[in-house]
Amino acid sequence: MTSRSLSTLVSGRIAATPGQGGAAWAVLQYVVGLDRLGHRVHLVEVLRPDQLVPSGSTLVTSTNMAYLASAMESVGMGDRWAIGLAEGDLTGGDLTGRALAGGALVGPAADRVSRGRWDLLVNLSGCLDAPDLMERCEVRCFVDLDPGFTQVWEAQGVGGLGLDGHTHHATLGASIGDPSCPVPTGGRPWIPMVPPVVLESWPTGAPVRLPAFTTVANWRSYGSAEWDGVSYGQRAHSFRGLVGLASASPVALCPALAIDPAETADLRLLHDAGWHLLDPTHLAETPDAYRDFVAGSMGELSVAKSGYVAGRSGWFSDRSACYLASGRPVVAQDTGFSDHLPVGAGLLAYDDVDGAVDALTSVTADYARHAEAARDLAEEHFDSGRVLGGLLEAVGCVAG
């Protein structure tokens, strides 16, 4: 294709996880970023009936739909979304490849999405699994947000991943396919990419309101996996191996950590070790609140899922990219990203407690330099125009 304005659908999880501003931004970066490139972008999301909040509500009265409407309005795209419910046997958990319930979408762009034909679908984690919509998209790009887990699950024969039916597959695992990376490729030519950030939405210069290194994360997200002798575990497993970091750190560590209150042993472990846990429900509930929390922090101490570390996929967090764009230095557990991104100024990688302490000490000793370098790195590597423009070129939608 030649360079032109593309009719584009983006699908990702915003309504499915109401109250998670970071998860919303992970999708909005693509929606807003593609719009800034001059493309005609709409968001569509299809939920399972058991995802509706509160339980027993209808789609139009649900918290899910209200949250999606608010998130899209917050970025000036309140008229460009649609949402629907999937059919399926909830008792068997099988909703793969099912049509929309009743064929219906609701929302301000429901008619456009339902009736239109699209040059491009950007399908984040295969969120959209509705053949009646997908078949009207000429180019269908699956974007893998969970590198290592996605590929291992496919190799294990796990269904419902949404990989099929796409013309292209991209991944945030920049090392997948390299000889040094143990993650299976499934024979797919994965397109490597980094998470995009709409830089104008993440300005620098906000005052540091919390003189601590923070993050926003889930203690657990989904089940662990094993493949070819490599264990792909959760963030809980990584934190346990780094529990001594808080007491050794030269700066306070205050992660906004979503952890089940029933995890009493781990909560006690973290508390006794000096971690100051914050509640993401209140601090990062909306896209605006999440952005304010990131910008108001001194920097990020990122602890990756142990599967990202063990898989050496090169995964880099969309959350960390937002910290960098805000001029906040990032000290991140290395997943192999140091093979692809410059580290040492603004972004520092670590493998163990001693390495993290050294990195935090370096940043706090010369904070202004690292803060400036953080934004410079975001502009050079994570700018949505550069990242998404490269993706469109890779899938053949625009000329290079």
Descriptive notes:
With 400 residues, the protein is of the alpha/beta class. The protein folds into two domains: 7-196 and 384-394, 3-Layer(aba) Sandwich (Rossmann fold); 199-381, Rossmann fold, CATH 3.40.50.2000. The protein is built from 15 helices and 15 strands. It has helices spanning 21-36, 63-74, 110-115, 131-134, 149-155, 235-241, 245-248, 264-272, 280-283, 287-296, 306-311, 318-325, 353-365, 367-381, 384-394; strands at 7-11, 40-47, 81-86, 100-106, 118-124, 137-144, 168-171, 191-192, 210-218, 225-227, 230-232, 253-258, 297-302, 330-333, 347-350. The protein has an eight-stranded mixed beta sheet. A five-stranded parallel beta sheet has the order 12-9-13-14-15, sandwiched between helices. It has a two-stranded antiparallel sheet with strand order 10-11. The longest helix is centred in the N-terminal third of the chain and has 16 residues, at 21-36. It is globular and about 60 Å long.
Describe, in short, the structure shown.
By secondary structure, the protein is of the alpha/beta class. 33% of the residues lie in helices and 20% in strands. The chain folds into 2 domains: 201 residues, Rossmann fold (3-Layer(aba) Sandwich); 183 residues, Rossmann fold.
Task: Write the topology of this structure.
Blueprint lengths: L6 E5 L9 H16 L3 E8 L15 H12 L6 E6 L13 E7 L3 H6 L2 E7 L6 H4 L2 E8 L4 H7 L12 E4 L19 E2 L17 E9 L6 E3 L2 E3 L2 H7 L3 H4 L4 E6 L5 H9 L7 H4 L3 H10 E6 L3 H6 L6 H8 L4 E4 L13 E4 L2 H13 L1 H15 L2 H11 L6
Parallel strand pairs: 1-2, 1-5, 2-3, 5-6, 6-7, 7-8, 9-12, 9-13, 13-14, 14-15
Antiparallel strand pairs: 3-4, 10-11
Helix pairs in contact: 1-10, 1-15, 12-14
